[in-house]
Every structure is written in structure tokens, then in C-alpha cells.
């Protein structure tokens, strides 16, 4: 996994999950939840590369980052179950991720603790701390940028996930 390409990793995870469903939901500003999750994973990967001395576990870092907002609902809807979304969505995301994947403790901690300090329990692992910080930076950028994420790798990962979803939906097994 050390040298596995980011795009390949994202597409492989997307095929095994409901990740493409995140494209239906707005997250911050005009940014879709899927694009936000891909951006968080991408920038975590880049920072981990620069901070090699900290020896991040790349597979866990990327999986946790891609699944940190795997709550799969539109939190802007006035549905009472979406109240206090900021406090409750990490547990919903973790529940959904556990339905689709076998997650190790690092990945679970990334998903469950990424909203610190809004949620009071801090992240336990360096990978979870990095996702928590990058998530805050990406969220701020998304709120204030007119057209966030023109980076070709982020756009390509977004397209791969959506293309994979349409291929699996229109494939011979679903005719």
C-alpha cells in the first residue's frame, strides 16, 4: 500500500461501498459531501507524505478520511433526526462504515473523533488528529471558495467514484 496511487485507492474503496451516494448531499457551501471526503483524504495523504517522520499508517488514514462523513443523509433537511448534526453524524458515519467494511481501531477513531473539539473526546491516533485538522481546513475553504477543488487528482477521484457507480448500476447484473 505504501506506493499505491491515490486514485486507485479511492476507486477501489468506492466500488466496495456506498461512497458514491455522498454525491447527492451538499456538505459545506456548494461542495458535495463526496468531494469534501475526497479532498480531506487527498490533503491528508499529501501532508502525511511531507511528515514522513511521523510514520502515518496510509491505508488507515485514507480509509478513515474517505469515510469520516459517511452518514449518507442530507443534513440540511428539516428532519428531526438530523438535529444537532455536528454532534451526531460521526456515530452515524461509523455505523454506516461498519455495515460496509471491517474497520480497525485507528479507522474507527478517525471517523468517530473527527469533530473534536465540537465533540468533547479528542482523537487517539495521529491519523485521527490529522483528519480532524484537515477536515477543519477543507470545511473553511469550502465555505468561502466560489469553486473549490480544481486540483486534477481530486476531480479525477470524484469522476472515478461517480463513473464506478454508474457502471455498476448499468452493468449486466442490473438489467
Write structural notes for this entry.
With 175 residues, the chain is mostly helical. It has one domain (6-174). It is 58% helix and 3% strand. It has seven helices and two strands; from the N terminus they run H-E-E-H-H-H-H-H-H. A two-stranded antiparallel ribbon has the order 1-2. Strand 1 and strand 2 (31-32) form a beta hairpin. It is globular. Mean pLDDT is 85; it is low at 167-175.
What composes the largest sheet? Answer: 2 strands, antiparallel
Low-confidence stretches: 167-175
Reading the helices and strands in chain order gives HEEHHHHHH
SS summary, helix count: 7
Question: If strands are numbered along the chain, what order do they take across the biggest sheet?
Answer: 1-2
Helical content stands at 55-70%
Give the DSSP E fraction (strand runs of 2 or more residues): under 5%
Mean pLDDT: 85
| Cα Rg | 15 Å
Shape: globular
Outline the secondary-structure elements:
Blueprint: H1 6-15, E1 26-28, E2 31-32, H2 33-50, H3 58-67, H4 85-100, H5 105-113, H6 126-144, H7 152-170
Antiparallel strand pairs: 1-2
Helix pairs in contact: 1-7, 2-3, 2-6, 2-7, 3-5, 3-6, 4-5, 5-6
Kindly list the characteristics that best describe this protein.
single chain; 175 residues; mainly alpha; 2 strands; 58% helix; disordered C terminus
Question: Care to give the gist of this entry?
Answer:
The chain has 7 helices and 2 strands, in the order H-E-E-H-H-H-H-H-H. Helix 1 (about 5-15) packs parallel to helix 7 (about 150-170), helix 3 crosses helix 6 and helix 5 (about 105-115) runs parallel beside helix 6 (about 125-145).
Amino acid at each position: 500500500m505504501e506506493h499505491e496511487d491515490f486514485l486507485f485507492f479511492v476507486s477501489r474503496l468506492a466500488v466496495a461501498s456506498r461512497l458514491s451516494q455522498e454525491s447527492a448531499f451538499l456538505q459545506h457551501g456548494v461542495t458535495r459531501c463526496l468531494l469534501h471526503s475526497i479532498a480531506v483524504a487527498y490533503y491528508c495523504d499529501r501532508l502525511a507524505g511531507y511528515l514522513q517522520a511521523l510514520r502515518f499508517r496510509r491505508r488507515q488514514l485514507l480509509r478513515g478520511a474517505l469515510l469520516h462523513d459517511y452518514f449518507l443523509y442530507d443534513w440540511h433537511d428539516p428532519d428531526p433526526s438530523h438535529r444537532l448534526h455536528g454532534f451526531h453524524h460521526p456515530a452515524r458515519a461509523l455505523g454506516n462504515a461498519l455495515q460496509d467494511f471491517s474497520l480497525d481501531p485507528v479507522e474507527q477513531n478517525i471517523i468517530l473523533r473527527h469533530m473534536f473539539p465540537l465533540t468533547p473526546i479528542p482523537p487517539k491516533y495521529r491519523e485521527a488528529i490529522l483528519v480532524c485538522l484537515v477536515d477543519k481546513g477543507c470545511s473553511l475553504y469550502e465555505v468561502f471558495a466560489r469553486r473549490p477543488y480544481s486540483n486534477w487528482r481530486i476531480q479525477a477521484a470524484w469522476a472515478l467514484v461517480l463513473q464506478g457507480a454508474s457502471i455498476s448500476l448499468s452493468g449486466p447484473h442490473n438489467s
